[in-house]
Design brief:
1 helix, 6% helix, 28% strand, mainly beta
């Protein structure tokens, strides 16, 4: 089912207003994903960011 990534087709002024729905931090577009500073990422499907929590993936970093 993971037929993404695709490029976002929203206007820049709309993209600037998007935030992570879980952490309320800003997000940016990166290789077919909207990525939050918190580490959550949301797929862009057919040009539209899917920003609902059920679509979220968490970036995992190696700590320690």
């Amino acid at each position: 089912m993971e037929s993404f990534p695709t490029k976002c087709r929203l206007p820049a002024e709309a993209l600037d207003r998007l935030i992570c729905p879980m952490c309320r931090v800003s997000v940016r577009e990166n290789e077919g994903w909207m990525v939050g500073a918190c580490g959550h990422r949301f797929p862009i499907v057919n040009g539209v960011p899917h920003m609902a929590e059920e679509f979220a993936k968490r970036e995992v970093s190696d700590v320690g």
